[in-house]
Amino acid sequence: MKTSDSIYKEYHTYLRLERSLSENSVLAYEQDLLKLRTFLEGRNIDPVKASYADLQDFVYTSFGQDTNARSQSRILSGVHSFYRFLLYHNHIETDPSELLEMPKKELHLPDVLTVEEINAMIAQIDMSSNEGHRNRAIIEMLYGSGLRVSELTDLKLSNMYREEGYMLIQGKGSKQRLVPISPEAEKWFVYWMEDRAHLDVKPEYSDIAFLNHYGRQLTRAMIFTIIKRLAAAAGVHKTVSPHTLRHSFATHLLQNGADLRIIQQLLGHESITTTEIYTHVDIQDLRKAVLQFHPANRQ
Known about the structure:
Structural class: mainly alpha
Radius of gyration: 23 Å
């Protein structure tokens, strides 16, 4: 009979190899599962012997007032994933998590930047600096193509078909998709490539598109820092991150008439339901328009 430690290790392998999740996704699953593991070990309960009542106790004791519905859903999703793994790999005969109900998620409308705010951020880039062309190309890629920050940092030169105007993007779960390169992004990327040619690029990063001044791959944290500094310098009083530019990309496409299915494909969303949040953003704009312009609402 396998020990609990060996089962948790087997689950880690399952996430990486069978589900082909990224290291960030694997880490997120395991961080949430650690909450359950700590709970079970504190009560000397073997995970394969945990009952529905045990998992209910975990939910009641772990989800305090500070745990919002989105966090609860993420943690419970991890619990369901772990017990489905145990079931499929014949460690258990029935899934005790099957009847655990997911909380209703509150609708979260992400901050969206206006075109004017994005232009104001771009205006803050010091084009005389060594990183100026690179940072401009980064903004144009995030906003012009809707890339996730991890997709940007992992972007390979060998996956950029610039003459055709496309990039091959490695998305979540190792799923690939073709994404157009906007003319503006291509323009600034050309300038960046000229600057990049003068870097002492480390051999292991020779195929990585965006590098720091040491010739190494940019980190997610560095991209966050670049974006936040530009937003602050531009006087943008919103919560701004690389993902805000991705949200803005999708919202602006929808507002200008793009089909939701096309936006789904561009963003790499597995389900159209995920993409539909942008329709709610657009509905908010419609409501503002009615309140502002309809004669019944004007004093």
